[in-house]
Write a structure and sequence with these properties.
This protein is an alpha/beta fold and 615 residues long. It has four domains: 160 residues, EAL domain (TIM Barrel, Alpha-Beta Barrel); 64 residues; 123 residues, CBS-domain (Roll), CATH 3.10.580; 201 residues, Alpha-Beta Plaits (2-Layer Sandwich). It is 41% helix and 22% strand. The strands form five sheets. The chain has an eight-stranded mixed barrel with strand order 1-2-3-4-5-6-7-8, surrounded by four helices. Strands 15-16-14-19-20-21 form a six-stranded mixed β-sheet, sandwiched between helices. A hairpin with a 5-residue loop joins strand 17 and strand 18.
Length: 615
């Protein structure tokens, strides 16, 4: 559906009116659905219902259909027909997705019975109210926002969500936004078209993204037609998108993930504090230090939500000019006369934080907390090789840190607090998508079950915590450590050779062996455990097995195949006594797997000799 008003048409008004009456009487309309895509999940959040006239009909085009209905004062009748058709067609396809439906504000105000009709149709169709999102178009004038607010309250009480459609296109703008408190805001396609080439459009979109973040509503970019537009919008924090690039309107609810959403360079799912801060960077227009304060004042006035502007000379950022700095100058006696012609370079904030895009979020956070000069209210300037790229709002950075901490806590192993299976899988799959080489180390304690039975679960837990600490001591900042569960751990090391790392881990573990065992067991060199019949069984002391697999062995395959190979390498390592590591490698002249490795600990002959002597 479309609430936009078109220019006067050359077709005779009476003929259009007759065609409209015939269309309404025969219900000769078609409903098609265009996907609204969640770029992070690479799936359809929902579908927008769009109305078309039947082929060959004079009112086949939606703009002409709705314009005629408006002129003939039958807009609410057409809206009701479109709503019924959309719900009926949606119901027939049995979907759990959201359904976005356009409704003109005047229809909601002038026809209160529409709410009852909508609720009735939903109940009859089995569609849940929370699946329905009503789009209120900004293109259409709203004469009485108080009545609209009252109507929307009733719709929200029924469970419907509200969206502002075509933001920035027309009559009401931010006033409508502040009045109705929407759940979604859809940016008009005018600001999306060639946004990758237009700094002013980028500034507008960035402002909307920041406002949505502050007001806790979701932003949708509609009308995306090129990959460059999509890439720019994603870099600005847009995660919900709609347009012909992602999916055309079709009669069926269908969505196939386009290749653009599967790009191997996609970093939207990379999480944690190791993520480069550049992933959060938003393009923002910049000004030269010679720009007058009067021109800066005009920019702040024309762009709502803009609080700071980077000052850049020859592509090198110098700092920021903040809105409140300018207001302080102009609010002084004769301030405007004194300052409006002066250059902005004289008023640059000297506490601006400027960092390279490759710096990790964790390191940026440390710089903020370690500095007493950084203003937490101003954005962070992002550079690439010293050249200006954009900004990251401090609020965005803190939210990501909080989300990462919550995510880590949610999926962490409760004993060691190391990342669990979900985060391990995500990290490995991310590296595979980015085609980065790494070594996967799969670590497992030897003889842990009998040890746990003999010493008790508390001592067993202490050993697991100690092993987790050993791994964190020996691993570097660029290593990912995870706890699969039980006595199974993993390390993902982005380095060509894990030999030194394995040797350090095994050496540290062996040096702690005395802490894990009773002196009598250490003196014997083995554990003596009685079975159910009272017979003594001899079990070696705790050992550590490490299986190593380079990612190059699974070229073109996923993390599941890598996990299988790591389990195979670990199994081979566990077949040796003491503590041992094995690495699977492809032989130079053969496709089969060659084996390299090393060990630390007592030999099997020493264990057998001691056990036989005790027996």
């Amino acid at each position: 559906m479309n609430c936009s008003l078109t220019k006067a048409t050359a077709v005779a008004p009476l003929l259009l009116q007759d065609s409209l009456n015939a269309l309404l009487n025969s219900q000769a309309i078609l409903t098609v659905f265009q996907p609204i895509v969640d770029l992070n999940q690479r799936s359809a959040l929902g579908f927008e219902a769009l109305t078309r006239g039947e082929p060959g009909n004079l009112l086949q085009r939606p703009d002409m259909m709705f314009d005629t209905a408006f002129r003939c004062q039958r807009l609410s009748d057409l809206e009701q027909l479109c709503l019924s058709s959309a719900l009926k067609t949606f119901r027939e396809q049995d979907s759990d997705a959201l359904l976005f439906i356009n409704i003109c504000p005047e229809s909601m105000i002038q026809k209160p019975a529409m709410l009852n009709d909508t609720v009735r149709i939903l109940r009859e169709s089995g569609i849940r109210p929370e699946q329905l999102v009503l789009e209120i178009s900004e293109r259409f004038p709203v004469d009485n926002t108080a009545e609209l607010q009252q109507a929307l309250v009733q719709y929200k009480e029924e469970g419907f969500a509200i969206a502002i459609d075509d933001l920035g296109s027309g009559y009401s703008g931010l006033k409508l936004w502040s009045d109705i408190h929407p759940d979604y805001v859809k940016i008009d396609r005018h600001f999306i078209h060639q946004v990758d080439q237009d700094p002013v459009k980028q500034a507008f979109v960035s402002s909307v993204v920041r406002l949505c973040d502050q007001l806790r509503c979701k932003v949708i970019a509609e009308g995306i037609e090129t990959e460059s537009e999509l890439a720019t919008l994603r870099s600005m924090g847009i995660h919900l998108a709609q347009g012909y690039l992602l999916g055309q309107p079709r009669p069926k609810l269908s969505f196939t993930v386009p290749n653009i959403c599967r790009a191997p360079t996609d970093t939207t799912q990379r999480g944690g504090l190791e993520r480069p801060v550049g992933d959060l960077c938003q393009p923002l227009m910049c000004i030269r230090p010679s720009t007058s304060m009067l021109d800066v004042d005009r920019l702040f006035t024309e762009i709502p939500g803009l609080t700071s502007l980077p000052v850049v000379e020859d592509d090198i950022p110098l700092g920021l000019i903040r809105r409140h700095t300018l207001l302080e100058c102009f609010s002084r006696p004769y301030g405007r006369a004194l300052y409006e012609k002066r250059s902005v370079g004289e008023f640059i904030q000297n506490d601006s934080l400027i960092v390279d895009a490759a710096l990790s979020i964790g390191m940026v956070s440390k710089r903020i907390t370690d500095s007493e000069q950084v203003d937490l209210m101003q954005p962070i300037i992002i550079t690439h090789n010293g050249h200006y790229q954009g900004i990251v709002e401090t609020r965005t950075l803190l939210r990501h840190i909080t989300d990462a901490q919550i995510q880590t806590a949610r999926y962490a192993n409760p004993l060691t607090l190391l990342p669990g299976n979900v985060l391990i899988d995500e990290h490995i799959e991310q590296l595979i998508r980015e085609q980065k080489e790494f070594q996967l180390l799969y670590l497992d304690l030897n003889h842990f079950k009998p040890y746990n039975d003999l010493y008790g679960y508390r001592q067993g837990d202490a050993v697991l915590k100690a092993l987790g600490n050993i791994l964190q001591q020996e691993a570097s900042d660029h290593h990912f450590i995870g706890h699969i569960g039980g006595d199974d751990f993993v390390i993902v090391a982005q380095e060509p050779d894990a030999t030194v790392l394995c040797q350090r881990i095994l050496g540290n573990f062996l040096s702690r062996s005395d802490d894990f065992h009773h002196p009598d067991d250490i003196a014997r060199g083995y554990l003596s455990i009685a079975d159910r019949e009272g017979k003594q069984n001899f079990v070696p002391l705790l050992g550590l097995a490490i299986g190593v697999v380079p990612s190059s062995l699974i070229a073109g395959q996923g993390g599941e195949e890598l996990a299988k190979l790591a389990a195979q390498a670990k199994k081979l390592a566990k077949q040796r006594p003491g503590s041992h590591w094995h690495c699977l490698e492809v032989g130079p002249d053969q496709p089969s797997l060659a084996l390299v490795g090393g060990s630390v600990g007592s030999s099997v002959h020493e264990f057998e000799r001691r056990a036989q002597r005790s027996a």
